[in-house]
Specification:
Blueprint: H1 2-12, E1 20-26, E2 31-36, E3 42-46, H2 52-58, E4 63-69, E5 79-87, E6 93-96, E7 99-104, E8 107-112, E9 122-128, E10 139-143, E11 149-153, E12 159-162, E13 168-171, E14 174-179, E15 187-193, E16 195-201, E17 207-212, E18 223-228, E19 232-233, E20 253-257, E21 262-267, E22 281-285, E23 290-299, E24 302-312, E25 320-325, E26 331-335, E27 357-363, H3 384-390, H4 394-403, H5 409-418, H6 421-434, H7 440-448, H8 453-467, H9 488-499, H10 511-514, H11 519-530, H12 536-547, H13 554-566, H14 571-580, H15 586-596, H16 606-616, H17 621-634, H18 640-648, H19 654-665, H20 673-681, H21 689-700, H22 706-716, H23 728-731, H24 742-751, H25 758-761, H26 770-777, H27 779-790, H28 799-807, E28 818-819, E29 822-823, H29 833-836, H30 839-847, E30 859-864, E31 869-877, E32 881-885, E33 891-895, E34 899-904, H31 920-932
Parallel strand pairs: 15-19
Antiparallel strand pairs: 1-27, 2-3, 3-4, 4-5, 6-7, 7-8, 8-9, 10-11, 11-14, 12-13, 14-15, 16-17, 17-18, 18-20, 21-22, 22-23, 23-24, 25-26, 26-27, 28-29, 30-31, 30-34, 31-32, 32-33
Length: 934
Amino acid sequence: MILSVVLLLALQEPQVPDGFRIDKVAESTFPMFATFDELGRLYVTESSGGDLCIELRDQVRKCVVRRFEDKDGDGVYETSVVFAEGLTPSMGLAWRDGKLYVADPPALVTLEDLDGDGKADRRTVILSGFGHRDNGSLHGLTFGPDGLLYMTTGQPDGYVFKQKDGTLLKGISGALLRCKPDGSDPEVVARGFENLVEVVFLPGGDIVGTCNWYQKPAGGIRDALVHLVDGGLYPYVPDQGTRLPNTDVLIPPLALFPAVALSGLARYHGTAFPEALRGNLFSAQHNSRKVQRHVLARNGSTYTAESVDFVTSENPDFHPSDVLEAPDGSLIVVDTGAWYVQHCPTGKIRNSRAPGGIYRVRFTGPRPGGKRAEQARIPVGLSPELLVKWLPDPAASRALARIGKPEAAPALAALLKSGDAPQRLGAAEALATCGTPDSLEAIWEALAGDLDPILEHALIHAALGITKGKFLLKGIPYVYVDHQRPAPRVRKAQIIILDQSEPGLKPEQLLTELRSQDPDLRRTALKILQRHPDWATVAAQTAEPWLRKLALSDDERASLLGIVVAFQTDSRIQEFIAAAMKREGISTRVALMEAMTEMTLPSLPAAWKEGLGAALSDLHPEVRLQAVRTIATLRLKDFDDRLAELSERENETLPLRLEALRALVGRRPVLSTTSAQFLIGQLHPEHEATVRLAAAEALSRATLGEMQLRAALRMTHGNSLISPSIFLPQLSKAEPDRPDGALQMAAESIRLGWRPSKTELGAVFTRLPEDVRKLIEKSGEEQQARLAQFEPLLKGGDPARGREVFAGKKVACATCHSVGTQGGKVGPDLTKVGATRAGRDLLESIVFPSSTFAQGYEPYLVLTQDGNVLSGLIARQSADAVALRDASGAEVLLRRDRIREMKRAEKSVMPEGLERAMSADEFRDLLAFLQSLK
């Protein structure tokens, strides 16, 4: 037994590849990010261990910077002092010229130790205006090879800086920013991120960064390493704030990952590791409890990255937040410990509060020697003449970009023709600041050739920099000549530039592109059209041919929906839609009714309502069902009598009857006997999970009589998918003294394992028997014991059998969660969950689903102006409306001006008690399956 414990503890220590060793070299409480000074002393920001988001928002100053020293050179930091305290949560620091640059939101500050006592005694704010609403505030400080200070932000925190001319530079979307060492001249390098964390520089000046939420999770993939380019707008967050040039080019990632929560990033230069590792990148990955090594390979003007594990741990409390190269060539890994749970569903109930620490990775073989990896360089301080002689080196081009001298333009334009892809990328970046109108012909020629998205973006960005919002007829040929138009990619660039110039693109100039056979050009034209609500005539001309079709291709359908949603207020578009709703084409009518669910009109046009009414009587079940779904989503009252009639028809399809009742129950909560019996019947475990969930959602908002409530509660006994919690509002009105009453049935459910909170029960709590009240009051104490009871099931299961449990009817996980291409979209995608969640955290999320919420899947409660209470996840939202999605996957669209209050809910849409529906072996197999998803 003792040997087994020793082996288990050894396995939980961080592991490294053969030939390396890892040792804990300093104790540190909740360390986050680190940097070295020129003497090799290590500076580490330490968290207070509190709620990071709240501390940022409320400006709680409990964080510190600690300085560690290895005085005897043995690699262990035997002394430490608090260098600075009283900081807001600090997620970045860098050393330069005797100053420690530190993130102290809302400010960027420098700290100096003037008297040499090891403590900072001068604090200087050099730049202020960083938002601090969430966890995406200022972080990732690093000095670039151009001598500028680079930093990152996330959204919705953003930034607002006052510039020299008095104007404001502001943004909400996450960004890569840079400024001079004194904090002056801040500028946006790239933006559009949910959370860009840290960057490194490659030899020619290319920038690579760690980005969380590069995309919405798809197939379990979410985070990325990204190539950061000047003027880049990345895909996740719309550009919000100061208007900056937009190339409309999707910039692809270097590598994609599950929700690993990429954090610190380092490029290895030293000679202490084998030569094959020099120039590799190393990323700290908080959620997956590892540090990965990334080997970059050239791919045109950008790179691809092959990723392999370097430091791994089975310890659920090991969470790397930073990685950096030490002066001796070893690798320092910062383990932040187990304090951070905001936006990150690690276990809150077990709440280990592991403090973390500082680790060092060494190579144990003979010192390899040889050359260091080539350093990043941008030769600042040289004249344009010398830099032109240094071409075609991209480093020289990027140095010219910082100077912005037009005399370099001819050499840079020539390089677009003669250079390889990386050299052409550097030249394009430089032409954005050095180029002249004469450079545009070379840009068009380059765009017409073979190039990748990164280079395409850089060329368009260069042309935008040259035109500077001014229409240059000389530089943009063939604008008015329909019979002699340039290559599609050139024309795409030109309409993008014209749209951001004065006097700008004319709507009639876009018609040909909207009908182009080139899909990329057509999509770009459509995006431009959608940005101009006053171009309704062109929108109508484009949409009308599609609206007349009886059947649409996927591409036509997507384009049509984009137009009708964007121009929903235009009378011609409204008339076209009304006419199309009267035609025979099934797919077109269904598509238009789907589009209506995304529209935010104060009221639906009468002709559209007429079309919906006709669709309710259509012979095709698909048309009838979509009509009901549209009415339900938009909460239209005009059809209540028709919906009531449809819901009572026993020969009508089951989905349609459920949708009709879902739409009705908020306004007509007292159900007919037929409808109540129908809904209660759908709770039976023999029905598909989506049916049971939809019925439960409708019943939760209904007013049930005592007998109906008892019948519904009876269906919840042993029904793992439906919790008695949905009937709590009804239970407060139940008859208290009946031995077979609803309250007694609820009490029995609690005795069998249902554990609503005292707050959730409200007035019902005092009406429950004493033994049941005691169970509720002890539920917090029970949670730890319950997790301990199931923890042995984390080992020994069969993943293949677990997949069957996941997809089966008992717990119906696949109803809400997807694995690969199969499953529902209500809850988080679990395709790679085993790579990002420790087994104990997976266990907690099943047994106590309301203890933690994955980011983006937090439940909300909404009180409408007409008194209805709705709940669900935010499926999508805009400035005008919010779409809520309930546990069955159904959505309701709410205009913001009709919402009285919206707040986070404490109760997960995932039902509790799933573990009670499974045998121990089934639960063990399910856990094995989830842990295998890597």
